[in-house]
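Sample entry (542 residues):
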Amino acid sequence: MPVITLQYDDLEKLTGTDKETIINRVPMIGADIERIEDESIDIEFFPDRPDLYSVEGAARAMRGFLDLETGLPEYEVNPSNISISVSEDILRIRPFLGSAVVRGVKFTSSSIKSLMDLQEDLHWGLGRNRKKVSIGVHDLSNVKPPFRYMAVDPSFEFVPLDYTEKMSMTEILEKHPKGTRFAHLVRDFDKYPIILDADDNVLSFPPIINGTLTSVTEKTTDLFIDVTGLGEAVYTALNIVVTALAERGGQIEYVKVIRPDCAELILPDLEPKNRLLTKSEVKTLLGMELSLEEIVKQLERMRFGAEALDEETIEVKIPAYRADILHNYDLIEDIGKGYGYENIKVRIPETYTAGKSHPISLLRSPINEIMVGLGYYEVMPFTLTSEKINFENMRRQKTDDVTYVLHPISEDQTMLRTTLLPNLLEILALNQHRELPQRIFEFGEVVRNEIASQHVAAVSIHPQANFTEVYEVVDAFMREMMLSYEAKESEDPAFLEGRRADIYLRDKKIGVFGEFHPEVISNFTLGYAVVGFELDLTDLID
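Predicted structure, serialized as tokens:
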């Protein structure tokens, strides 16, 4: 889950209250405080709330939660004469485009950083690492509309962000840090996406890198925003970005998107969606009866529009930036947050049973204590994965013990994982903007032949990562678990020959450790040495 750094002075100004009040109340809106610093606070927001991935979005939500400004936020969108045309040949590459203009923004170094962090967190949260959504933010004063979104030959040259010399798009994919990291998103096409202005100046090579011409600085006041991708999440991301900028005083303007396959679009579309919610639904899910007035009040605290239509039904208006409201259950969850779970009266259940810790929990506790003591952070990736991640990226042969998803919603989630290490390497790839070293672990479930087992795995990435480091970690872990083990030569292709070993417990192979093969590191677009281990601890569960 994304961890957002919020500067106190910015947060207090945008929220309208003091930092102590925010620190005390923000966990109740659905967040965990990671750390409290002298000048800032780091907050981990749940991944279903990408609208909170910025100080502007967090402040907007907190104003409602603290009863400082309740109800549906309304944003004025003015007309403009700016348009962007979509060419026919781009539709087979990256077909969805959303655009908007925001004027009159007053930037500081911290607000620019907040905007850039919002981009990157949306790339992860909504965009699946830029595959489904990528965002470009440009200084409008340096380019001339109308704009064009089209496909060009890979030999096309421009000066990419953070560089001073022209590079071809092929060279960018081979040499630029962003290019090498995201090249797989466009490499298989014979032409690459680009956004040009009326004078053929480059705004963006989506989803890879912007042109240096449109870099945002503290002198920037007017912005052109492009969001490209593979589906309608593009429009949600656009709404989140423009409303965040509007919270900072920006004035939103429409952009006309001219497509060859349909009527032109006028974006952004900030009209709220309407849902009908009944009083009985709320009572059934929350387990307590609230009056219509109370339900309306709590919905408005959570920044929805709400109006009672009769004695049973409420019309709810959902802000255009809320991507998480898929069912009335989601509205009722927010009603519970607004009411305050701490305010729900404790009631003795009608049936009584004596509870006890689950055996898996009893095993998890010492594992977590040991790994945290060794300097590793716990993560909880998804259990669903794909054959590419689970096998191909790891240089391992596909096995016949895989449990597949019958109706997958994404090509990234087609099977249940049979190993933990690929998920951990994915997380390292998503956090390359964080400082090194990074050391993470997971105690979690894998499924083989439709049977679940419990594994622990850990990875470490930094320039000096080597076999000795991971051997020491494995040895310390097994010693603390009071397990007598034996290390034998391994043939696992995910690791370097001569720098890998299998782990045996009572003559049974339970795991592997070593230095990852350079090809595995490259497959996960990582730039440094990585070591890791994985153990099957199912037999230790009583």
